[in-house]
């Protein structure tokens, strides 16, 4: 029997609203369609009414998880148009925040993945360990989300020597816990049996569809803006871009666990070699000439793309925001095909979607 | 340090450029669009060429050829979005209906009942009159 099974926009297996239509033959999904827009807030239009400082506050609220990546990309686009050079110490602090954000984002999703496969003890353990990172973020910025650390021309707050030592100590504790969690992820049968061979995206299809971020890297596509087009001094740090070839949900779990190791490496290097000097150029609204620039930032889920057009005035003439989920959600129908309806929620979640970002 | 290069092109050049980029293994970063101060539509096809974003911009065209047969969903999603956002028609683009919210939602047939689009249009036109 053929059925059309609707999932969402509001559904218990979805953290945020999206609408998927599953065309099924019995239990098996034969095709699918995805519809977005349920979180559309008109942020790009609103940005045209805001000055460059106000826009930082606005774009930080595009997403609650990668709330550093958005102003990070926007500020660099404006700085490039205005030829503003950020002090080295400010660049390093931006990187530290970006990598801490990656740690907490990957841990958030690893927890959700464990929860979705019914492994709730692992879910609770992962989220408990994640709190160490949330504490560091709070210690640096004063906030657990929407850190307000980016200003045009640098970082808003400095990291003191005492805080630097504390963070390094907490990171060492986090690393010990992460090794234990990684051991479970790589070797536990419960997780493997539920995720191996599910929602496969082969490498050639991933390339053809132009997908990005950990989603692409889990399908064997080595793409990472931090290496391909370094920004904010990423070229100063030694780190690898892990790649897993299998392209299934299990690979997407593993890739995030491996990327956590690399982020810890980057944060440690940045903290241990934090340059002396100012962290910003002051708090004035910058004079931005007419121009345009597209800035890419490797957010936890993949590339965040900010295309900014200015006309010499105090506001953005045009701001176009595109996020990783815009490049990963189109792969969902392909991944759903020939899987069972019971796996649909897990497969949709496996792209680590952010529909709040996607709809903006 | 990332770089940005903007080049204005004619609409006839869109497909040949996309084919050349694809054959060289260059990724389509995004297709952005907006309406400028003179009311002209500006569409920017942006490619990742190493550390540089190359932007090929077409101005003042309402109908453009699709490049979704070259770049698959990496092109079709932005094209669908631009069609809904600023009304550019992409010839050859296989539209699935609406990308941002399905058609039926506005008719009140979906899982959510909202004000039908036809009534919103009437209201907007009424205000203009």
From TrEMBL, chain A:
Keyword Transferase: no
NADH-quinone oxidoreductase subunit D domain sequence ranges: 117-280, 284-360
Keywords: Iron, Magnesium, Metal-binding, Nickel, Oxidoreductase
Annotated binding of Ni(2+), by residue: 63, 66, 354
Cofactor: Ni(2+); Fe cation
UniProt: Fe cation binding residues: 66, 357
Signal sequence coordinates: none
UniProt-listed PROSITE patterns: NI_HGENASE_L_1
Protein name: Ni,Fe-hydrogenase III large subunit
Lineage: Bacteria, Bacillati, Bacillota, Clostridia, Eubacteriales
TrEMBL record, chain B:
An annotated Gene Ontology molecular function: NADH dehydrogenase (ubiquinone) activity
Protein name according to UniProt: Respiratory-chain NADH dehydrogenase, subunit
The species this protein was found in: Caloramator fervidus
InterPro entries referenced in this protein's UniProt entry, alphabetically: NADH_quin_OxRdtase_su_C/D-like (IPR037232), NADH_UbQ_OxRdtase_30kDa_su (IPR001268)
Ranges for domain NADH:ubiquinone oxidoreductase 30kDa subunit: 7-108
């Amino acid at each position: 029997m053929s059925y059309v099974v609707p999932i969402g926009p509001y559904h218990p297996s979805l953290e945020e609203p999206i609408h998927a239509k599953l065309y099924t033959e019995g239990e098996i999904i034969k095709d699918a369609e995805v519809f977005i827009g349920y979180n559309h807030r008109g942020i790009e239009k609103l940005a045209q009414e805001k000055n460059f400082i106000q826009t930082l506050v606005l774009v930080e609220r595009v997403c609650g998880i990668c709330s550093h990546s958005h102003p990070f990309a926007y500020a660099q686009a404006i700085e490039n148009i205005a030829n503003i050079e950020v002090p080295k110490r400010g660049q390093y602090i931006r990187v530290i925040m970006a990598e801490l954000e990656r740690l907490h984002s990957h841990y958030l999703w690893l927890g959700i993945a464990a929860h979705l496969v019914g492994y709730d003890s692992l879910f609770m353990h992962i989220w408990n360990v994640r709190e160490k990172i949330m504490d560091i973020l709070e210690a640096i910025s004063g906030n657990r989300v929407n850190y307000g650390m980016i200003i045009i021309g640098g970082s808003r707050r400095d990291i003191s020597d005492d805080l630097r030592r504390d963070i390094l100590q907490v990171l060492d504790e986090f690393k010990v816990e992460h090794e234990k969690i990684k051991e479970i992820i790589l070797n536990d049968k419960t997780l493997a049996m539920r995720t191996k061979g599910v929602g496969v995206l082969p490498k050639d299809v991933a390339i053809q569809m132009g997908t990005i971020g950990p989603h692409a890297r889990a399908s064997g596509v080595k793409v990472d803006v931090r290496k391909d087009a370094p920004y904010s001094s990423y070229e100063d740090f030694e780190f690898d871009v892990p790649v897993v070839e299998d392209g299934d949900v299990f690979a997407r779990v593993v890739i995030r666990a491996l990327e956590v190791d690399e982020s810890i490496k980057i944060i440690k290097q940045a903290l241990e070699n934090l340059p002396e000097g100012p962290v910003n150029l002051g708090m004035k609204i910058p004079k931005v000439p007419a121009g345009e620039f597209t800035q890419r930032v490797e957010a936890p889920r993949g590339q965040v793309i900010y295309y900014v057009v200015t006309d010499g005035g105090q506001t953005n003439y045009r701001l176009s925001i595109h996020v990783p989920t815009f490049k990963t959600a189109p792969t969902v129908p392909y991944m759903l095909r020939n899987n069972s309806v019971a796996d649909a929620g897990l497969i949709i979640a496996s792209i680590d979607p952010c529909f709040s970002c996607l709809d903006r | 340090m990332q770089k940005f290069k903007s080049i204005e092109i004619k609409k006839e050049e869109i497909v040949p450029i996309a084919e050349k980029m694809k054959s060289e293994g260059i990724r389509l970063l995004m297709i952005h669009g907006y309406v400028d101060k003179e009311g002209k539509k500006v569409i920017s096809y942006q490619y990742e060429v190493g550390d540089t974003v190359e932007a090929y911009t077409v101005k003042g065209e309402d109908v453009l050829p699709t490049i979704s047969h070259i770049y698959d969903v990496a092109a079709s999603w932005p094209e669908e979005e631009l069609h809904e956002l600023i009304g550019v028609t992409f010839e050859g683009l296989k539209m699935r209906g609406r990308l941002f919210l399905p058609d039926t939602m506005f008719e009140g047939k979906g899982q959510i009942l909202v004000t039908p689009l036809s009534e919103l249009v009437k209201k907007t036109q009424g205000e203009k009159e």
